[in-house]
């Protein structure tokens, strides 16, 4: 299928959606058919911008309004209708677009110029490439010899809190969230008058590398902002893993996690402020993970 055919199909689907559908609460956020002709020549409407929480495509529903209201509370691919035994064209295209975004997030590297623009220097784990990173999780939990030397040279010694960013399984999440998340987190810690170490970026990093970083820097609390494994709802979700006096080989139960940081979840700026508060409590109670009672 060429681009012209694909554009024609999408325009037809959008026209059908606006002409039919009996549920008043089922407004789809795709561009109306009348706007299709206004799309720049050579382009098609961006179906990735459709909010699937408001997308309800079932024809002649019995409880359309109630179901649409229920669906709005969670981003699920429900109520998308069928064409016989098959999915309708638009949901199928949305599914393929989401799958493509997830693959891109996993296999693409974070742009190094972007990282440097955030004021972060770059170190790397023992993974030499993306394939190694995906097939050898153990190497993603260990810093390379060069990274160890760089951290010893550039990082503040024995800070109260050490913050760093890692690509994890989603390069897209780093680009989407860090410009707002990292400044909000640092500002929150500053407002609490908490000493913060030198932030940096870890390429091909797994969560467990924070334990070695904790021991190297001597931080009381270590926090990694890392890309989550992407799904078909979003490829831009980020998590913060935080631990009090992390050590190599410690149980996972000692980590505290703030997850689903993205524009349709916990927005980055709010997440940064929330993480700062959690770190403050960790320092007061000298605990993290299941030992921490918030």
Q: Which keywords apply here?
A:
294 residues; alpha/beta; DNA Binding (I), subunit A; Rossmann fold; 2 domains; six-stranded mixed sheet; two-stranded antiparallel sheet; 8 strands; elongated
Describe it:
α8 (171-191) packs across α10 (268-285). The longest helix has 21 residues, at 171-191. By secondary structure, this protein is an alpha/beta fold. The strands form two sheets. A six-stranded mixed beta sheet has the order 3-5-4-6-7-8, sandwiched between helices. A two-stranded antiparallel ribbon has the order 1-2. The chain is built from ten helices and eight strands. The protein has two domains: 3-106, Orthogonal Bundle (DNA Binding (I), subunit A); 112-291, Rossmann fold, CATH 3.40.50.11240. It has helices at 3-19, 33-36, 64-71, 89-107, 112-117, 130-135, 145-154, 171-191, 209-217, 268-285, and strands at residues 82-83, 86-87, 121-124, 161-166, 200-203, 221-227, 238-244, 255-261. The model is unreliable at 20-37 (pLDDT under 50).
SSE inventory with pairings:
Layout: H1 3-19, H2 33-36, H3 64-71, E1 82-83, E2 86-87, H4 89-107, H5 112-117, E3 121-124, H6 130-135, H7 145-154, E4 161-166, H8 171-191, E5 200-203, H9 209-217, E6 221-227, E7 238-244, E8 255-261, H10 268-285
Parallel strand pairs: 3-5, 4-5, 4-6
Antiparallel strand pairs: 1-2, 6-7, 7-8
Helix pairs in contact: 8-10
Largest sheet: 6 strands, mixed
How many E strands? 8
**Helix percentage range:** 40-55%
Which regions are unreliable across 5 or more consecutive residues at pLDDT < 50?
Answer: 20-37
Structural class: alpha/beta
Across the major sheet, the strand order is: 3-5-4-6-7-8
Full CATH superfamily name of the largest domain? Ethanolamine ammonia-lyase light chain (EutC)
Name of the CATH class of the largest domain? Alpha Beta
Distance between the termini: 55 Å
- What proportion strand? 5-15%
**What name does the CATH topology of the largest domain carry?**
Rossmann fold
Order of helices and strands: HHHEEHHEHHEHEHEEEH
**CATH architecture label of the largest domain:** 3-Layer(aba) Sandwich
Shape: elongated
């Amino acid at each position: 299928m060429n681009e012209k055919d694909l554009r024609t199909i999408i325009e037809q689907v959008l026209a059908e959606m606006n002409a039919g559908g009996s549920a008043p609460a089922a407004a789809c956020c795709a561009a109306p058919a009348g706007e299709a002709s206004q799309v720049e020549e050579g382009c098609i409407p961006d179906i990735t911008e459709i909010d699937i929480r408001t997308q309800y495509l079932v024809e002649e529903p019995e409880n359309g309004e109630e179901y649409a209201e229920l669906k709005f509370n969670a981003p699920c691919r429900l109520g998308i209708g069928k064409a016989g035994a098959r999915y309708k064209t638009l949901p199928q295209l949305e599914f393929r677009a989401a799958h493509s975004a997830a693959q891109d997030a996993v296999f693409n590297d974070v742009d190094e110029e972007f990282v440097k623009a955030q004021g972060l220097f770059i170190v790397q784990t023992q993974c030499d490439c993306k394939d190694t990173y995906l097939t050898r999780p153990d190497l993603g939990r260990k810093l390379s010899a060069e990274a160890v030397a760089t951290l010893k040279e550039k990082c503040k010694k024995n800070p109260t809190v050490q913050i760093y960013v890692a690509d994890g399984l989603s390069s897209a999440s780093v680009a989407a969230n860090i410009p707002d998340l990292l400044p909000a987190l640092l500002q929150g810690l500053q407002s609490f008058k908490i000493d913060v170490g030198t932030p940096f970026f870890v390429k091909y990093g797994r969560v467990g590398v924070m334990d070695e970083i904790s021991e190297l820097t001597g931080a009381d609390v270590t926090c990694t902002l890392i890309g989550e494994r992407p799904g078909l709802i979003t490829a831009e979700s980020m998590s913060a893993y935080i631990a009090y006096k992390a050590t190599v080989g410690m149980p996972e139960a000692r980590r505290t996690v703030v997850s689903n940081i993205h524009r349709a979840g916990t927005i980055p700026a709010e997440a940064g402020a929330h993480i700062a508060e959690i770190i403050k409590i960790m320092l007061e109670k000298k605990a993290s993970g299941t030992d921490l009672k918030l």
